[in-house]
Sequence to fold (294 residues):
Amino acid sequence: MNFNPLDDLSAWLQHVALPIALVVTGGFIVVRFVSWGGLKITDRIDAQFRHGDALVRSEAAKHRHSVAQVITWVVITLVWIVVTLRVVDILSLPIASLVAPATVVGAALGFGAQRVVQDILAGFFIITERQYGFGDTVRIAIVGSTDDAEGVVEDVTLRVTRMRNSDGEVITVPNGQIVKAVNLSKDWARAVIDVPVPASADLNRVNEVLHQVGVDAYADRSLKRLLLDEPTVMGIEKLAVDETSVRVVARTLPGKQFQVGRALRVRIATAMRRQGIVVSPEMQTDKPQETSNE
Fold:
């Protein structure tokens, strides 16, 4: 009997290589289709916001966007798992004989995989509890880091949260490494402005000027649509030897506290200058307080 290596090669190509190529190609096609479908869904959610009259995204829209991203990621992962199992089956690998080595390897990888499992579980609760979603401005405390990560959320999956800070840098944080997440754009936000004035200034007059600034700001059509109510003068926040700090607070639409804070600082500085009251250059908007569901 003649041994023909070409026949063996042809049979291997026909019964092994070709099915594997078809399975892998099919997997790529399905993944591309799922990615395209997920992108279409998220684009449609974003288009409803851009073409609507709302100034900020609703909590439901942000949650739908995040859920669509997570479902896309899960489906793609499942597709590649199925493709891998199918390739193993086509190659007729002796699964039973690989159980013992796989157990040893699995135990070794388990220590590293536990962090992945931790990330996925944390991501699951972030999504289901609606802690934050696409488009939210968040401040995140990370394990082992002294500086918090702050920025606008661009992507939330079961494993990582990706956001972009004010400098345009993309920050990727594993969900399992998040110690605390402060959502700065949920339901409503608060712009807090501390106005430093000389200790010799007439505080009653200062309060009158700040109150009038709040009234005028709320009457301004461009600012009123960002404000939930009239800015309030809270009173003296800090006393020093040569300086007194008076606090002004304004409730705003979620994520608009920075824009409102900048506008109010300009109005306050202008109004104080007209009254001959010197405002210290250190006047600034404090870090926004955590928003409330109330």
